[in-house]
Design goal:
About 45% of the residues lie in helices and about 15% in strands. By secondary structure, it is α/β, with parallel strands linked by helices. The longest helix is centred in the N-terminal third of the chain and has 19 residues.
């Protein structure tokens, strides 16, 4: 059977469902209705039902959703029931901050290596992971079954590094470099532009205060 294409809007909401359901589990909530979940998430109950119906629904009329079951199933949809080995390329402030972020492992993302071009950083460890030089990248990816590369490098170097990654078994790139990457279609790129988010916040502040309205 041909897999149904899911809209990007639904995919973007899935991690949010997962996070809220995780909070409910922590608070020992066993079941919840779409109406109650909508109040917590500020999403309509109808939207929740439509989103989940893309994957089979999971709800039961008169009962609602079993929180643990729904949490587990969304985790599977997101691929969080498997381990994903990843590396960070760029050991500057952002790269080190991401390397120090422990909750990644709780979601199945395992940091295997950190790479940089600065020889003064070689051998320094962050949470037990040593910083290596970029010249060792290809061999390391091959030997450690690396699936994801995180780019936290200047945009002037991002294209060259991306080309290097295109010749490896990397399946996806989490791109913090402020530039678009031109890569083969089999490599999935998720761009993260931190300044974009900050500018959206600025827009919302300006319009909520009336400063930017006519």
């Amino acid at each position: 059977m041909e897999e149904r294409e899911i809209s990007q809007a639904v995919i973007q909401r899935l991690p949010r469902y997962y996070r809220y359901l995780g909070d409910l589990l922590d608070n020992e909530v066993e079941r919840i209705s779409s109406s109650d979940l909508s109040k917590k998430m500020n999403v309509t109950a109808s939207q929740i039902r439509q989103d989940l119906n893309n994957f089979g629904g999971f709800g039961q009329q008169g009962y609602g959703y079993n929180v643990k079951y729904l949490y587990t199933e969304i985790g599977k949809i997101l691929g969080l029931d498997e381990k994903h080995n990843f590396i960070i390329i760029g050991a500057g402030n952002l790269g080190q901050a991401l390397a120090n972020y422990g909750p990644f492992e709780a979601s199945g993302f395992v940091l295997k290596g950190i790479f940089d071009v600065n020889p003064h950083l070689e051998g320094i460890t962050i949470r037990g992971v040593a910083i290596r030089m970029l010249k060792d990248l290809n061999q390391f990816i091959e030997e450690n079954d690396i699936e994801i590369a995180v780019l936290t490098i200047p945009k002037t170097n991002a294209g060259e590094v991306a080309d290097m990654l295109a010749d490896t078994k990397i399946k996806g790139i989490w791109n913090f470099a402020h530039t678009d990457l031109k890569l083969p279609k089999h490599i999935i790129v998720e761009n993260v532009h931190l300044s974009d988010s900050l500018m959206r916040l600025s827009y919302k502040i300006g319009h909520s205060t009336g400063r930017l309205t006519e």
